[in-house]
Amino acid sequence: MSAQPNISSVAFLIADPARAAMLMTLIDGCALPAGELARAAGVTAQTASAHLAKLLNGGLLSCEQQGRHRYYRLMDGQVAEAIERLAAICSATTVRRRPLNRAAQDLRFARCCYDHLAGQLGVAVTQALQEKKFIAAGMDKQYALSAAGNLWFTAIGVDIAALKPTRHGLARQCLDWTERTHHLAGPLGVQLLSALCAAGWLRRIKSSRAIQVTPKGWAGLKTQLGIDENTLAVETTGT
C-alpha cells in the first residue's frame, strides 16, 4: 500500500473555529503576537497558546521571536492558498447570509490575499487586464503574459525580468473566496500589488487586511484599466 498524505491531521487543525479564526487573521502574510490572535479568535491567552502550539507542530504556522515577544505567521503561501480555497468552498455552500458590517464590506471590496490583491477590486483589475489582452487564462490555472502586458506591467513599476516563476508559474489564477471567480496571484500578482502601493494608488490599512484606493489610484485605474469608481460601486452594491 502506497503512503498517503495525512490530510486528516491538517483538516483537524483547521476545523477548530478558534484555530480557523487565527489562520484567517494571518491570511495576509502578517506576523502577529499571541495576544492579538487570542482576541481575533475570542479565546483566553492560555487557550490561544495551546492552539498556536498545535498549529506550529502541524506545520501550518511559523514563529519568530524578538526579545521577549513571539510573532506568528502562516508557514508559507501554500497554507494561505489552502485556506482561501476552503473559504471559497464555504462561501459556495452558504444559503443565507447576515448583512455585512463595514469591516466585512471593506474586506470584500479590496484586501490582501496573503501577498496579492483580492476582493472585488482584485477581480476587476484581473478582468480588465484580460480584456486589454495583457494577460490571458491558460492551462493549469495559470495566466500567460503577453508582449503588450510585459510593457504595461513594466511601465507600472513591475520588474518582469527579476520575477522568478514558482512551480505554479509566473502568474496563477487564485479563486476569490468572496467573489467566486479568479484574481491574479503568483509572483506577478505580488509585484503588481507592491507596485500599486509604491505608486500611491493603493494603501494598506494597519491592523487589517483591507486595502484602500487613493484618489490618485482611482484616476490611474480609470485611465489605465477603465475601472471607474462609480461603476464599481454600483456593481458592488448590486451583488
TrEMBL record:
It comes from the Bacteria. InterPro entries: ArsR-like_HTH, HTH_ArsR_DNA-bd_dom, HTH_Metal-responsive_Reg, WH-like_DNA-bd_sf, WH_DNA-bd_sf. It holds the Pfam family HTH_20. SMART domains: HTH_ARSR (SM00418). Gene3D superfamilies: Winged helix-like DNA-binding domain superfamily/Winged helix DNA-binding domain (1.10.10.10). Residues 1-94 form the HTH arsR-type domain. One of its GO terms (biological process) is response to cadmium ion. GO terms for molecular function: cadmium ion sensor activity; DNA binding; DNA-binding transcription factor activity; lead ion binding. This is Transcriptional regulator. It comes from Collimonas arenae.
